[in-house]
Each structure stands twice: as C-alpha cells, then as structure tokens.
Amino acid sequence: MNARPKKSFGQHFLHEKRYIERIVSSISPKPEDVVVEIGPGEGALTLPLLAAAGKLTAIELDTDLIPDLQARAAAVGELRIVHSDVLKVDFTALARELGAERLRIAGNLPYYISSPILFHCVDHAAAIRDMHFMLQKEVVDRMAAEPGSKVYGRLSVMLQLACRVEPLFTVPPGAFRPPPKVDSAVVRLLPLPAEQRHDADPERVHAIVKAAFAQRRKTLGNALRQLMDAAAIEAAGIDPKARAETLAPLDFVRLAKVPTQA
C-alpha cells in the first residue's frame, strides 16, 4: 500500500526495513503481551508487531487507511482497530476491556501533537507497562534532558516524574515517506512503580511546573507569585532567586507539598 500522506494528520510513513526491525526488536513483543499501537498508518510496524504478539489493538483516526490495514493483517494475526482520536482513548478503561493488567504501547507519533499524546499517556501510567515511541529527535532530547540543560523544561519534568526515559536511537529523514525536515528518534518510557511515584497533588505539581517554565528567565519568586510567595518557596528548601531549569523534578514536588495559605 502507498497511501498519500495527509498533512492534516501529520503523517510520515516509516518504510525503511532496518529501522522497522530495530524498533520491533527494541519492543520485543511476546504472545502474552497486550500491545496497543497509536497511529498504525500503512502498517509498517503493525504487521511485524502483530506477527510477534499474535494479536494487537491499533488506534487510527484516518478512515482511509483502515480497510487495507485490516485486509493485510488478516493473514498475520488478530488485529482490532479502534477508530478514534488517541487523545479521546481512555487507556485505563481499554486495559480493563482487553483483560490486561498493563498495556504495552507503541507508535510513530504525529509530531504536531506529540506532547499532548505523551501527557495523555502519562495520565494513564498505572495501566501501562512501557511505551516505545518514534518522535522528533528534538522532543526526545527535551524528554530526557537533565537540570541545567538548555532544553530542560516542562516536558522533561512531567515525564521524568512519571517515567524512566530511555532514548534508544536516531532515525534519519530518509526512512520516512515523505521525509520530515528533521531527524527522528525512538524512545522508551517505563512508568515508575507505585512506590516510586510522588504523592503530591498532580494538578498542583502541573500548575507549578507550567508557571515556573512559562518565562524561563524569571526567578521562581517572580514566576510563581500567583501560586506561592517567597516564604513558601523557602519552606520547600529552595531559593526563590533560582530559576526553574536548575531544579530537579522532585524539587517541584517539594514546592507542591508546601501548604497553601488559606
């Protein structure tokens, strides 16, 4: 199949066999796994994943791609296609529906909505065993960035508070049709076990992280003034004159746990 990629869906179809094989090898699906693929496209990853696992659930928004994908998968294994916007899929409910303790999620994510998809998956991290995603390399660099890095920011903090982030390898533009204008990369996300997750209010953590990085050059005292004063920041053991990019992810949890004034 050679479907015409749709700009409106941000489609770049992976076609180079060696990278497909490398991704499938990194995932290493087993028959007992419950695998969910986001955006199967032409099935470059779908069919080898299906061959390895025997069954697979794919989430696809583009109705034009579904009939051919179903036809090609029929001789390979049991493919279930969920026709939906992935941001509307409740992965926790899907895991229950599929009888899975935890899902294994994979996909070549549309670059223009990759961050919302990542945050959406993190919201369901307790129902997910691991995630393997193809993303713009610059996004993967941000996901794995350490404090002090120029690309360390909101995405870095929120993902690292929920998952272990493991960049795997880079994929060049020529591996796709049409070639994107940037390098891509494959990343593995491993949700943290319950005992390693923070116990602060998630909405409070998110609000603090978002405000702290909204204007990177501001000190925390200025950036967070609508949420907490300098005394509250100091109560968390953090200098109000520090900037967000110098804080480790758990420092934001400490800020979120400072009691708010009545």
From TrEMBL:
Protein residues bound to S-adenosyl-L-methionine: H12, L14, G39, E60, D85, N108
Superkingdom classification of source: Bacteria
InterPro entries: KsgA/Erm (IPR001737), rRNA_Ade_diMease-like_C (IPR023165), rRNA_Ade_Mease_Trfase_CS (IPR020596), rRNA_Ade_methylase_Trfase_N (IPR020598), rRNA_adenine_dimethylase (IPR011530), SAM-dependent_MTases_sf (IPR029063)
Keywords from the named record: Cytoplasm, Methyltransferase, RNA-binding, rRNA processing, S-adenosyl-L-methionine, Transferase
Entry's localization field: Cytoplasm
EC number(s) from the headed UniProt entry: 2.1.1.182
Top-tier EC class: transferase
Transmembrane segments: none
GO CC annotation, single: cytosol
UniProt keyword rRNA processing, yes or no: yes
Catalytic reactions on record: adenosine(1518)/adenosine(1519) in 16S rRNA + 4 S-adenosyl-L-methionine = N(6)-dimethyladenosine(1518)/N(6)-dimethyladenosine(1519) in 16S rRNA + 4 S-adenosyl-L-homocysteine + 4 H(+)
Ribosomal RNA adenine methylase transferase N-terminal domain mapped to chain residues: 19-193
GO molecular function: 16S rRNA (adenine(1518)-N(6)/adenine(1519)-N(6))-dimethyltransferase activity; RNA binding
NCBIfam families reported for this sequence: ksgA (TIGR00755)
Family: Belongs to the class I-like SAM-binding methyltransferase superfamily. rRNA adenine N(6)-methyltransferase family. RsmA subfamily.
Known function: Specifically dimethylates two adjacent adenosines (A1518 and A1519) in the loop of a conserved hairpin near the 3'-end of 16S rRNA in the 30S particle. May play a critical role in biogenesis of 30S subunits.
Protein name as it appears in the record: Ribosomal RNA small subunit methyltransferase A
Species per Swiss-Prot/TrEMBL record: Dyella marensis
Higher taxonomy: Bacteria, Pseudomonadati, Pseudomonadota, Gammaproteobacteria, Lysobacterales
